[in-house]
Design goal:
170 residues, alpha+beta, 4 strands, 60% helix, 12% strand
């Protein structure tokens, strides 16, 4: 969790308290006291908006890697996985349409995500796509943990079919 927004809000609150002390002898103190929460909200909103996570657009058109679970030295979830899960969260019909488009026109990493998504949403269509993927020589950039590698799409398809990625489909 990022503690920077909390620290900035705390700083604004302390400044606001300081302003109340300064204005205590002025007539404006009543206005400041009555609207202190409004002032705090107005001062903190831009700070919180700056640190808010970006909204995830379920596109996944050109992912740089096929990665599920914690990856990289920090062990965080990849942006690609966030986008993949955003697609899976859509209504099933819409999600399947997006996955079909990814498989037909996406890069090899997108095809891998599309295949995995179809495994969850439509086993019949998954089986059809699996035949195509197993015949492919496309190279997929994958990441497991902090290891990035290149694998053929057919190898990724075999791994998907073995179920090793199913734990990430919850």
């Amino acid at each position: 969790m990022n503690s920077k927004p909390f620290l900035y809000v705390l700083l604004v609150f302390v400044v606001l308290l300081g302003m109340l002390r300064v204005f205590r002898s002025c007539r404006t103190v009543k206005v400041v006291e009555e609207h202190s929460l409004d002032l705090l909200a107005a001062l903190c909103a831009p700070i919180l908006a700056h640190f808010a996570p970006p909204s995830v657009q379920p596109t996944l058109e050109a992912p740089k890697m096929f990665a599920l679970g914690p990856v990289g030295f920090g062990g965080s979830v990849s942006e690609e996985e966030h986008q993949f899960k955003a697609i899976l969260a859509l209504e099933p019909v819409e999600a399947k349409q997006k996955l079909e488009k990814l498989y037909s026109s996406g890069n090899p990493q997108a095809k891998s995500y599309a295949l995995l998504g179809m495994r969850k949403l439509d086993r019949k269509r998954y089986s059809e796509l699996l035949v195509s993927a197993r015949a492919s020589d496309l190279i997929v950039t994958t990441m497991r943990g902090c290891i990035m590698s290149q694998e053929k799409l057919r190898t990724v398809a075999d791994n998907l079919d073995s179920g090793i990625y199913d734990v990430w489909l919850h």
